[in-house]
Amino acid sequence: MAMALSSRAQELAKPDPKFFFWEIIQKPWHPQDKPDGYVCLGLAENVLMHYILAEHIQRNISLVSNDFTYGDGKNHLRSTLARFLNRHFRPIVPVDAAHITPTNGCSSAIEHAAWAFGNPGDSFLLGRPFYGTFVPDVTLRMGTKLAQVEFGPETDPIGPGCVSKYEEKILEVQANGGRVAGLILAHPHNPLGRCYPRAVLIELMKLCQKHHIHFISDEIYALSTFANTVDSVEVYPFESALSIHTAGVIDPSLVHVIWGMSKDFGANGIRLGAFVSQHNAELHRALLPVSLYSSTSAITDCAAANMLNDDEWVDKYIEENRSALQSNFEHVAKWAKGHGFEYAPGVNAAFFLWLNLGAAYRESHPELEENGGVDIDQLVMDALLGEKVFLASGTQFGSESPGWFRIVFSQKRDYLDEGLQRIVAAIQKRD
Ligand SMILES: Cc1ncc(COP(=O)(O)O)c(C=O)c1O
């Protein structure tokens, strides 16, 4: 008789009709080779600079004997990351190698945070909408939970009014006998593509201090910022949580920042992350045995060090990446305006347009108004998949209102345009 899986593995082994994503990325569209393939604008990847990345790695990679071993305990990588963060994040206290636990991507770093700060059953606050994979990061293996925070239609999820909503949720969890272990932010925000104003970060830190919970800022899009020349709303520059004076604000051992190369260097596949905590040596000691399971490879370390220590190349890369993102943002925002699609304005970071395709779909299908109770998210998703275009849906991203989808615009223009055309076709097509 075959050995049964553990109950937790059995749970995940059940077929899940909502988990069609792997199928989509296995059948990518190509204008000649696979015209009936999927256009995927649902995955947060930035391909705009890949040729520059590939050129640097191929020109500089050189492995020595030490790279085929467990190496030096990642000391060299820690120093590289510290130096890089000091150049780009304006930390109040210079980042030291000892402040960093490197990981194979930010996903592992977030899971480590859930493991290190939460006992099973403890909750982490997460404002809506959110980056959907925070859910498995916190809940899949660690036994920790999320306490999702609603803001309602009047409160900007990243504006000053968000703070009291987070506090209400802390009190609610506590009133139900639970414990809140931390607050997780994506800063810049995924999917809204905006940076938290400095004043809001400070107020959220004060809230964390008041309730003695960890403040975890996932800054994976820190350097993917650009000017918004399209929307007439106030935007805020990116300012790292590391750049905030903690005196009188928060116990610095509660402040943690996560960064990695997946987004700012368009390299989801490189698998490099950094869990930065400057005043919590105990945390790094605890993570040392755990990090065997989230270690980067020496090949990654070598490629990353070559890049991150090449200051001139990095500075040029960041600048070119910013202008490429700005140009694609302007393109997709104009497309949305041209078709009358409502979107969340003020994007000046990351690579997302968060838009209300549900409203547009209803407009081109007026008969829907009559039968209330339709699942507009599902209707739009089915229509999009019918046209072989995939977007992340607000249902996976904790959207408070139905019909919202996230377009990733950091794809090459022909690919992006093919996707945008398919979206229009999906929304406007009549049965
Ligand atoms: C906010 C945020 N954090 C973490 C990740 C995952 O990063 P990594 O590829 O480093 O695991 C993503 C990827 O989309 C993200 O958007």
Overview of this protein structure:
Helices cover 40% and strands 12% of the residues. The protein has 431 residues and is an alpha/beta fold. The N and C termini lie far apart (50 Å). The model has no long low-confidence stretch (mean pLDDT 95). The radius of gyration is 22 Å and the shape is globular. The protein contains 15 helices and twelve strands. Strands 2-8-7-6-5-3-4 form a seven-stranded mixed sheet, sandwiched between helices. It has a three-stranded antiparallel sheet with strand order 9-12-11.
SSE inventory with pairings:
Elements: H1 7-13, H2 21-25, E1 39-40, H3 50-60, H4 75-88, E2 100-103, H5 106-117, E3 123-127, H6 134-139, E4 145-149, H7 162-175, E5 180-186, H8 198-211, E6 214-218, E7 255-260, H9 261-264, E8 273-276, H10 281-290, H11 298-308, H12 311-338, E9 352-356, H13 357-364, H14 376-386, E10 389-390, E11 392-393, E12 404-408, H15 413-428
Parallel strand pairs: 1-10, 3-4, 3-5, 5-6, 6-7
Antiparallel strand pairs: 2-8, 7-8, 9-12, 11-12
Helix pairs in contact: 4-11, 7-8, 13-14, 14-15
The chain binds pyridoxal-5'-phosphate (PLP).
Search tags:
three-stranded antiparallel β-sheet, seven-stranded mixed β-sheet, alpha/beta, 15 helices, 12 strands, 431 residues, binds pyridoxal-5'-phosphate
Label the overall shape.
globular
Low-pLDDT runs of 5+ residues are none
Order of strands across the main sheet:
2-8-7-6-5-3-4
SS summary, helix count:
15
Bound chemical compounds: pyridoxal-5'-phosphate
Distance between the termini: 50 Å
Q: Quote the beta fraction.
A: 5-15%
Order of helices and strands: HHEHHEHEHEHEHEEHEHHHEHHEEEH
Structural class: alpha/beta
Largest sheet: 7 strands, mixed
Give a count of the beta strands, DSSP E runs of length 2 or more.
Answer: 12
Average pLDDT, all residues: 95
Relative helix content: 25-40%
Q: What Rg, in angstroms, do the CA atoms define?
A: 22 Å
